[in-house]
Write a structure and sequence with these properties.
Layout (H helix, E strand, L loop, with lengths): L2 H14 L3 H7 L3 H10 L2 H9 L7 E2 H5 L7 H13 L3 E6 L2 E6 L1 H13 L19 H20 L12 H7 L4 E2 L7 E2 L1 H7 L3 H14 L8 H11 L8 E2 L5 H11 L4 E5 L4 E5 L1 H4 L16 E3 L4 E4 L4 H7 L4 E6 L2 E5 L2 H9 L4 H10 L3 H4 L7 H13 L8 E4 L5 H13 L3 E4 L9 E4 L3 H11 L1
Antiparallel strand pairs: 1-3, 2-3, 4-5, 6-8, 7-8, 9-10, 10-12, 11-12, 13-15, 14-15
Helix pairs in contact: 1-11, 2-12, 3-7, 4-6, 8-15, 20-21
C-alpha cells in the first residue's frame, strides 16, 4: 500500500473513532460522503453503490455471494471498515446478521450522484479579485511555503528560523516529529526523519491529522474541523472565495494553513478572499489509489554516484539524510551513497526500504521509465548494509542447567517448545543438559519443573 494510503487510512481511523452523533453530523455534508467513499477499499465502494437504492436490510450470507470464494478476506475487511465508519449498521438477531446503509449517508450520497451538489460558497467574480495570481504563481507560492515548513523542521535546532509560521502553530505541526529535552536543542524524532521521505500528500495527511487531534485542546470541535478541511478539497484551484462566508473557526484554520501553502490569502479594497492551491484540492483525490507521478529529479548510477537536478535547498537537505553531498551547482546536486552516510540514516531510524522508495518515487524522467529505475546493485547493497546492523537481536531469556535426569531435561525441552518459548538446547550428544527459554515463558517453566519433582 502506498504511503499516502497508509497515512490517509490512519486519518480515517481517527474519523471512525468519532462518536456516532458527530459521524452522523459529518454525513450531513454530501462532499464529506464523497470523500469518505473515495477512502474506502474497492470492495467496500462496490457494496455502498450496490446498496445505495436498497432500503431494506441485506442478509450477510447474501452479501457473501457477491464475491468469489478467494475474496473472503477482502470481503471481511470491507465490511469491518464500513461498520467502523457507521456507513453500515450491523444488526444481529437470532444468529442472523444483516446490514443497512446509514440513512443520512445514503440520502446525501444519492443526492450528490443524481443531482450534484453546489459548494456552500461561490467563487468571487474576477472583476473584484483583479490581483488574483496566475496558476504558475499560485503553484510557486504553495511550493515555497511547504518547503519553508519542511526546512524549518529539518533545521529546528538552529536559531535562525523563518518567521512566517507562528511558534504555537509550529509546535502543533511538529507534534511527534520533533522532540526537545531540558537545555537541549530540538531534534527530529524517528517519525520526523521518516516523515521527510514521505510523499507530499502523505506528509499533508499526517500534519492534518495532528492538527485535528490537537483541536480539542484549543476548544474546537474536531468534527467541524474535519468537515471543513475535506470540504475545502472540493474547491476549485485558483478561484477566489470570500473569506466572510467562513465562521471564525474556519477563518483561523485558513490562516494556519496559509502558512503551509494550502491556501493563499489576499486583501482587496473592501473584501478579503482565499485561493485554494493544489495542495488543498488534491487532498480528497489522494484518498484514492492514484497512479500519477510527480516530476522526479534524482539519477542514481551503478557506481553509487547520485545526481539531483534541482536548485531546491530542501532537496539538498533531504538527500543529506542518507547520502554524502559533495558539491552543489546552481541546478545540480552531486553526491554519493556511502556506507557511512547510510549508517547515519539507519541510526536515525530511516529504513533501507524508505530510502529506496524515495529514490524510486523521485527518479528523473530519463530513468523513471527504466526497470528498475534505481540500479539493482545499489538497492541490494543498501539492504545489505542495513542487515549488517541487525545481525544480533536481543531477546530476554532464562538459562536452565543442572537437570537431575535426561528424562526431566527432554520433558522440559518439549514443554518449552510447545509454548514456542525454546530458544536453544544443548546438542543430543552433549553430556551437559542445558537450555534457554524466552523470559515470558519462565513462569510456566518454573511451574512445570516444580510439578515434576
Amino acid at each position: 500500500m502506498p504511503q499516502v494510503r497508509i497515512i490517509a487510512k490512519n486519518f480515517m481511523d481517527m474519523v471512525a473513532a468519532l462518536p456516532a452523533m458527530k459521524l452522523d453530523k459529518l454525513y450531513d455534508n454530501a462532499f464529506i460522503c464523497e470523500a469518505i467513499l473515495r477512502s474506502l477499499p474497492p470492495l467496500a465502494k462496490k457494496y455502498v453503490l450496490q446498496m445505495l437504492c436498497v432500503e431494506l436490510p441485506v442478509n450477510s450470507k447474501s452479501m457473501e455471494e457477491w464475491v468469489l470464494p478467494d475474496g473472503a478476506s477482502k470481503h471481511r475487511v470491507a465490511i469491518d471498515r464500513l461498520v467502523q465508519l457507521r456507513i453500515f449498521t450491523e444488526t444481529k438477531k437470532k444468529g442472523d446478521v444483516t446490514y443497512t446503509l446509514n440513512p443520512i449517508f445514503q440520502t446525501n450520497l444519492k443526492k450528490l450522484l443524481v443531482y450534484g451538489v453546489v459548494l456552500p460558497r461561490e467563487p468571487m467574480p474576477s472583476s473584484v479579485t483583479v490581483r488574483r495570481p496566475s496558476s504558475e504563481e499560485l503553484e510557486a507560492f504553495a511550493l515555497e511555503q511547504w518547503e519553508c515548513f519542511l526546512l524549518q523542521l529539518i533545521n529546528s535546532s538552529q536559531t535562525e528560523r523563518p518567521s512566517n509560521i507562528s511558534s504555537s502553530m509550529m509546535k502543533t505541526f511538529q507534534r511527534g516529529l520533533v522532540t526537545q529535552r531540558d537545555r537541549e536543542a530540538p531534534r527530529l524524532t524517528e517519525s520526523g526523519f521518516q516523515f521527510l521521505l514521505m510523499d507530499t500528500n502523505a506528509q499533508l495527511w499526517y500534519i492534518i491529522r495532528e492538527y485535528i487531534t490537537s483541536s480539542e485542546e484549543r476548544g474546537i470541535d474536531s468534527a467541524d474541523l474535519i468537515s471543513f478541511l475535506l470540504e475545502l478539497s472540493f474547491h476549485v484551484t485558483g478561484e477566489a472565495y470570500n473569506i466572510n462566508t467562513l465562521t471564525e473557526v474556519q477563518k483561523n484554520t485558513i490562516k494556519d494553513f496559509t502558512d503551509l501553502g494550502l491556501v493563499k490569502l489576499q486583501q482587496g479594497r473592501k473584501e478579503s478572499w482565499f485561493i485554494p492551491t493544489k495542495l488543498a484540492t488534491n487532498l480528497s483525490v489522494s484518498l484514492t489509489d492514484t497512479s500519477s507521478r510527480k516530476q522526479g529529479f534524482v539519477v542514481v548510477e551503478t557506481n553509487f554516484r547520485l545526481y539531483a537536478y534541482s536548485s531546491s535547498k530542501l532537496h539538498c537537505e533531504i538527500l543529506r539524510l542518507f547520502a554524502r553531498i559533495e558539491y552543489q551547482l546552481p541546478n545540480l546536486i552531486v553526491g554519493a551513497i556511502t556506507k557511512e552516510s547510510l549508517y547515519g540514516a539507519f541510526d536515525n531510524c530511516i529504513t533501507a526500504e524508505q530510502i529506496i522508495s524515495f529514490l524510486q518515487q523521485n527518479a528523473h524522467p530519463r530513468v523513471a521509465e527504466r526497470v528498475p529505475s534505481v540500479p539493482e546493485n545499489v538497492t541490494d547493497q543498501i539492504r545489505l548494509w542495513e542487515t549488517d546492523l541487525n545481525r544480533v537481536e536481543m531477546t530476554p531469556a532464562y538459562y536452565y542447567d543442572e537437570f537431575p535426569s535426561r528424562d526431566l531435561f527432554d520433558g522440559a525441552v518439549d514443554y518449552a517448545r510447545s509454548y514456542n518459548g525454546l530458544l536453544w538446547e544443548a546438542p543430543d550428544d552433549s553430556k551437559k543438559m542445558r537450555l534457554v527459554v524466552r523470559a515470558e515463558n519462565h513462569v510456566h517453566m518454573r511451574e512445570y519443573l516444580s510439578g515434576q519433582k
